[in-house]
Amino acid sequence: MADARIVLLPGDGIGPEVIDAASQVLEAVGSEFGHSFRTESHLIGGIAIDETGDPCPSSTVAAAEDADAVLLGAVGGPKWSDPSAKTRPEAGLLHIRRELGLFANLRPVTTWSALVDASPLRRDIVDGVDILFYRELTGGIYFGEATESDDRTTVSNAMTYSVHEIERIVRMAALAARQRRGKLTSVDKANVLAVSRLWRSTTDRVMREEFPDLEYETVLVDAMAMHLLSRPKDFDVVVTGNLFGDILTDEASMLPGSLGLLPSASLGDGGPGLYEPIHGSAPDIAGQGIANPLATILATAMALRHSLSMPDEAHAVETAVERVLDSGMRTADLARGAPYVDTATITAAVTTEIHPG
Ligand code: NAD
Is the C-beta atom of 108 inside 6 A of ligand 1? Predict the structure, then answer.
C-alpha cells in the first residue's frame, strides 16, 4: 500500500473534463491495488490569469514541487489569445516546466491494433509500433543565445549543449531501454554540426562505459525522418535533442493516427514529473462532455510508472484502455461516422476494466 500525493492542474477548455476522468482512473487503481492517492487541484493557464492575473501562480508551483506527480489537462483558448495581452496561458506551462527542472520529455508512440486503420500509413507498417522518445527539453537551439545585426538583416540562434546535459538525458533513455526491448537509437546531425559531434561522442562514451548490454545505434536526423515512416517498428527508445525531438515526435504522432490517444511526460532529476496529453484545450468541444479522455488516462499510467514506481498499476491502466478500444467503444473523434459515447461512458468502461467493483 502506497500513499501518494498528486497535484491536478485541469487548466482550460476540455482540461477539467479529461482531468476528471484521470482522477476516476486513479481512484479505481487505488481500490484495485490498495493505494491511497491524495489529489488536489491548482490553477494554471487562462483560468489562473482570470483568477489571479498570473498563468502559473506561486501557490501552484509550490504545490507541484511538494507532489509525487503532477497531472495537467491543457491550457489556452480564444478568450486569452489577444496578441496584445500582457501574458498568455501557455506561459504558465513553460514556467512550471522550468521551475520543476523538467529536462526530459518522454513521448510514447504506440499503435493500438483496434485503431490501426486510422493511421494514414499502411497497416503492415504501423501495426505493432512501440517507440518511446526521449527529447531533451531545456537546452539546444530553443534556449541558445539569439543575436541580430544592427540593421536587422542577419539573425542567429545558437544551438548549444554541454556534456552534462547530454549525459543526463542519454542515461535516462538508456535506463528505459533496459526495461523495454534493450535498444537505444540516438539521433543527431554529426556529419554537419559541431554540437551534434559532441552529442555523438558523449552518447558513444556513455553507452560504451555504462550500457554495454544494450543494442545501440546512431542515426542522422534526416535519415530518421524517413525511417520513421518506412520502418517504425525497428525502433525501441529514441533519444535526441530539443529541436530534432520536437519535429520527429510530431511526425511520429501521426503513426497511430489519432491525437486523442497520445500522452507525454516531462521529467527532471528526482523531483515530480509532469504528465499531460499532447492535445490542446479543444475549445470547439469544451463543455459538451464528448472529449476523448484516453490520452490523459494514458498520461496517468505514465505517472504511475515513472513517478510512483508502480509498473503493474500502469500496465493495468494501459490494458484497460486497450480492452475498451478492442470492445469497439469510441469517442466522437475516433468514431468516423459510427455511433460514439461520451467522456463519462468511456471513462466508466476503463475504470470498470481496472476495478470491476
Ligand atoms: P487542440 O489539440 O486543442 O485541438 C485540435 C482538434 O483536435 C480540435 O478539433 C479538437 O476538438 C480536437 N481534439 C483535441 N483533443 C481532443 C480530445 N481529447 N478529444 C476529442 N477531440 C480532441 O489544438 P488547437 O485547436 O490548435 O489548440 C486549442 C488551444 O489549445 C490553443 O489555445 C492552444 O494554444 C492550446 N494548446 C495547448 C496545449 C497544452 O496545453 N499542452 C497543447 C496544444 C495546444
Answer: no
Distance 56 CA to ligand 1 centre (A): 20
Domain extents in the chain: 1-103+260-357, 130-254
Closest CA to 120 of 255, 216, 248: 255
Q: Mean per-residue pLDDT for 85-95?
A: 92
Q: 3-class SS at 303?
A: helix
At 263 the pLDDT is: 96
Task: Choose the CATH number for 1-103+260-357 among 3.40.718.10, 3.40.50.720, 3.30.70.60, 3.40.640.10.
Answer: 3.40.718.10
Q: Is 342 left (phi over 0), alpha (psi -120 to 50) or beta?
A: beta
Q: In what order do the strands lie in the sheet with 3-11?
A: 36-41, 3-11, 69-74, 273-277, 263-267, 104-110, 130-136, 237-240, 183-188, 215-220
- Residue located nearest, by CA, to atom 4 of ligand 1: 282
Q: In Å, what is the CA distance from 71 to each residue of 7, 277, 301, 308?
A: 6, 9, 11, 13
Determine the distance separating the centroid of ligand 1 and the alpha carbon of 18, expressed in angstroms. Answer: 12
- Do 1-103+260-357 and 130-254 have matching folds? yes
Q: Which residues are known catalytic residues?
A: 142, 189, 222, 246, 250
55 close to ligand 1 (CB < 6 Angstrom)? no
pLDDT digits (tens, 9 = 90+) for 107-147: 999 998 888 887 889 999 999 999 999 999 999 998 899 99
Distance 299 CA to ligand 1 centre (A): 16
Q: Which atom of ligand 1 is nearest to the CA of 282?
A: 3
> Residue 80 CA: which ligand 1 atom is closest?
32
Ligand 1 touching residue 280 (CB < 6 A):
yes
Straight-line distance from the first to the last Cα atom of the chain, in angstroms, rounded to the nearest whole number: 18
- Average pLDDT for residues 255-270, to the nearest whole number? 89
> What superfamily would CATH give domain 130-254?
Isopropylmalate Dehydrogenase (3.40.718.10)
Give the global pTM.
0.92
